[in-house]
Amino acid sequence: MTSGDLAGMYQQVILEHSREKHGFGLHSEADASSHQLNPTCGDELTMQLHLDGDVVRSISWEGAGCSISMASASLLHDLVPGLTIAELHARIGLFRELMHSKGAGVDDDEPLGDAVVLEGVSKYMARVKCAMLAWVALEADLAQLAK
Amino acid sequence: MSHPAGTTELTGSLTDDEVLVLRRDFPALNQQVHGNDLVYLDSGATSQKPLRVLDAERLFYEHDNSAVHRGAHTLAANATELFENARATVARFVGARDNEIVWTANATEGLNLIAYGFSNASLGRGGADATRFALQSGDEILTTEGEHHANLVPWQELAARTGATLRYIPVNDDGTLRMDEAERLITSRTKIVTFTHVSNVTGVINPVKTLVRLAHAVGAFVVLDACQSAPHRTLDLAALDVDFAVSSGHKMLAPTGIGVLYGRAELLDALPPFLTGGSMITTVTMESSGYLPAPQRFEAGTQKVSQAIALAAAVDYLSSVGMDRIERWESELGARLVDGFAAIPGVRVLGPGSGVHRAGLASVDVDGVHAHDVGQFLDDRGIAVRVGHHCAQPLHRRFGVTASTRASAYLYNTTSDVDAAIDAMASVRSFFGVSS
After folding, report:
1. Which site among A17, A41, A43, A125 would you substitute to test the B interface, given the most B Cβ atoms closer than 10 Å to its Cβ?
2. Cβ atoms A46, A33 nearer than 8 A
3. Domain parsing of chain A, residue ranges
């Protein structure tokens, strides 16, 4: 009844993350914070970045949106602790490449950890922006740091 | 239901068998999506087009293509005649006179045309005839909480430009207008009352005549958004006694890029123009210009000729099926949608519940599942619905949601289309793991 593509996008681990939302809940302080809104669907997300020097301690976030955008933020939360800012930039770039691969994937997706489960989203052009929401928000945090 | 040939064929409703026949006229409906037959339930966003409409546009370009209202050659004359005949056809369809129909790109442009007409009058443009449209501080524009953004944002802007105040009629929990509030809010300060005929989110049919009576009693102009009514039911704008109305072609079997503005003739001839330039003038000097009467005064520049001709073909197609029959059929489909959706645990219908007369659409909130995920799940079964806020954020906020899933039917939908959507909706929550 359900196509392989749909099951590929909505893998159990994604649906679990969309419900569990690792890292959900904002802190009173952050090294950078940004708010992203997707005006076409109303999804929104606030992303806080917490650093120890040049290394990511954690992220925290709040938002409302579809299962893909929520799961993606949760998976991102699990990926980033311990990364340097340069490594984080690279991960975001790699994830963007994965999302725009139209199902083809990327050569080396190991640096993305569990977030590779979102690869199935790349077959659905209209949903790529959902998966990117948290990552774009974190990218905006990094841009603030650079200022 | 069957009809003896040639006797009562334009009364009653449609039947599934008849719909299956007329569906052959719509090539886009005959395809598969993800291995399933397409079930198109997104006509509230845009309709599919019958061959007769596609042919009309193509034939124009093959035989008659030329600039209208200029040139002395034969093709120019033919094109002008087809263009103006199209206007007459559409005018008859909505109960208007030919000179009361202005072509626009879409309904949004129509609403902006009206708003900028008032705006320009407020700046003193249009002379003594236009002073009736002038707004100033203390004047009020009244809209409703249930509008498409196209019938809200232009009025916000008009209020900001003129110093007038924008107010709105709130809605009840079921999306119907608070008529007690309407009576309280429509006062001698009210200059414009603007509202949708049929809600694109809830399918609520607003009480046009009551609102017109209240507005005209205080001398206010009435603007009707007919985008969700003109395609789906018999519309007699003169009988409804509205002052202005707008609709879009692409929601009623016509191509994109063509819309209709209606205005009572005496108003259109007095309203200052919005877009200015060629084709809408009488005498032009280096200092100033005189303007043609309506509709030409609002049709600056090269016109949407093939689209207007295609819209007339669409109107002829709808008329040949019968608007009263289409309305009844869609009412049946709408009731079936609501009954089916409302019976599913965790699914809430936004708007009137079962048993209330509505248009052929229903929007739902699914507990625990975002509308985009609902829409994705339905798409996997070949079912096309709209997800999001449907350009009505304030109404969704009123319902306590940011997005919903809307199924909207048209004359080419069958009861099995509706049942497919209901069956799929019944499986959504278990697929996403929010129910057993």
Report:
1. A41
2. yes
3. 4-142
Nearest-CB residue to B388 (from A5, A6, A41):
A41
> From 3.90.1010.10, 3.30.70.260, 3.40.50.2300, 3.40.50.12710, which CATH number describes the A4-142 domain?
3.90.1010.10
CA gap B111, B147 in Å, rounded? 12
Interface test with A, best of B33, B201, B363, B372 (most A CBs within 10 A): B372
What are the angstrom distances between the C-alpha of B382 and each of B36, B41, B241?
A: 5, 10, 42
Confidence grade of residue A41 (pLDDT, cut at 50, 70, 90): confident
Residues from chain B contacting residue A1 (CB–CB below 8 Å): 381
Burial class (CB in 10 A: 0-12, 13-18, 19+), B121: buried
* Domains of chain B listed by start with CATH number: 16-50+322-431 (3.90.1150.10), 65-319 (3.40.640.10)
Contact residues on chain A for B433, CB-CB shorter than 8 A? 12, 15-16, 19
pLDDT in tens, A79-97: 999 999 999 999 999 999 9
Closest CA to A65 of A36, A85, A97: A36
Catalytic one of B242, B254, B391, B392: B391
Nearest CA in chain A to B33: A3
CB contact under 8 A, B388 and A1: no
What is the per-residue pLDDT across B180-237, written as a single tens digit (0 to 9) for each?
Answer: 999 999 999 999 999 999 999 999 999 999 999 999 999 999 999 999 999 999 999 9
* Contact indicator for B192, B221 with CB cutoff of 8 Å: yes
